[in-house]
Amino acid sequence: NEKHPEPYGLQVVNRIGENVEDHITITEISIPPMDHLMELKRDEAFSHFYIDKHRQLAGDLTSIFMGLRNTDDLMSVASYAREHINPQMFSYSFSVALLHRPDTKELNIPSVVHSFPDKFVENKLTGQARGREEEHRLFCFREDIGVNLHHWHWHQVYPGQGPENVVKKDRRGELFYYMHQQLSPAARKSSKARRRREDWKAPIKEAYFPKLDRLVSKGLTCKIGKFTIEKPQQSYRRIRVDVQALERWRSAIFDAIDTLEVKDVSMIYPKTTDQVALDEFTGIDILGNLIESTSLSINPNAYVNLHNQGHN
């Protein structure tokens, strides 16, 4: 129909017909409201941590999958969602639900390489290497299939949004820090590349040219040499952030580290002055959730979203 003009399931049936060995019967049930999830079009690039709105939509879809009473209902709703929802968001949210539902958590989740091979495998050579830029020593790491698989899977096991029993895990913020602390510096050191500077206003000397050129990787653009970070304003993705904002958020986080205290969310109200101590047992966990930022962030109004918007 006009509202959902992409009947991919019907196309598959017409193409394959009855020439299949296995048939799966889907129970007809009432489908939960999903119209707001279709705000993200099927052919748009999806990011569960770069774009706040996408993360919220993915969390809503995960909540729907988690709330279904049994696997029959899950299969029915998932079949409908696969037909109408952005395929990348569907794959992410459905995998998160399968990993956390008690009746599906023992299943083997298909690899993202099998679901979206275009993200990792080029369809043609992209030309000769462009110069001898230092940053190109890192392409074997940045575009490595195994590393990207690990990163994608980590964020399925530890999503930033969704039902509390899915997001709220022991030492989640600490593990977020640990994973990134292991990945980033190790790659640069092993490639003999210099550590990144902290001055976000200074021009970035190094250039970088991603090797991926498929449609689903269209968000991976080239970075020219001596690039200066300005204001990435993309109206269709609702991104509004600048370097000054990043610096304010970083200063607030540094203040918390220096004072060993984080302002509680209740600090936004004038009658209370609560503080949460950053101790040796839970401090790194609190900071990790602040910096990412997840639904577990103690005060997203003060510390906002440094990690995710830093990617942007």
From TrEMBL:
<comment type="similarity">
    <text>Belongs to the tyrosinase family.</text>
</comment>
<dbReference type="InterPro" id="IPR013788">
    <property type="entry name" value="Hemocyanin/hexamerin"/>
</dbReference>
<dbReference type="InterPro" id="IPR036697">
    <property type="entry name" value="Hemocyanin_N_sf"/>
</dbReference>
<keyword id="KW-0560">Oxidoreductase</keyword>
<keyword id="KW-0503">Monooxygenase</keyword>
<dbReference type="InterPro" id="IPR000896">
    <property type="entry name" value="Hemocyanin/hexamerin_mid_dom"/>
</dbReference>
<keyword id="KW-0479">Metal-binding</keyword>
<feature type="domain" description="Hemocyanin middle">
    <location>
        <begin position="86"/>
        <end position="311"/>
    </location>
</feature>
<protein>
    <recommendedName>
        <fullName>Hemocyanin middle domain-containing protein</fullName>
    </recommendedName>
</protein>
<keyword id="KW-0186">Copper</keyword>
<dbReference type="InterPro" id="IPR008922">
    <property type="entry name" value="Di-copper_centre_dom_sf"/>
</dbReference>
<dbReference type="Pfam" id="PF00372">
    <property type="entry name" value="Hemocyanin_M"/>
</dbReference>
